[in-house]
Amino acid sequence: MADMTTNTAADPRGPKPKRTFSRANIFLYGTLIVVSMYYLLPLYVMIVTSLKGMPEIRMGNVFGPPVEVTFEPWVKAWSEACTGINCDGLSRGFGNSVRILIPSIVLSIAIASINGYALSNWKFKGSETFFTILIIGAFIPYQTMLYPIVIMLREIGLMGSIWGLVLVHTVFGMPILTLLFRNYFAAIPEELFKAARVDGAGFWQIYFQIMVPMALPIFVVAIILQVTGIWNDFLFGVIYTKPATYPMTVQLNNIVNSVQGVKEYNVNMAATLLTGLVPLVIYFASGKLFVRGIAAGAVKG
Question: Alpha-carbon distance 198 to 210, whole Å?
Answer without folding.
Answer: 14
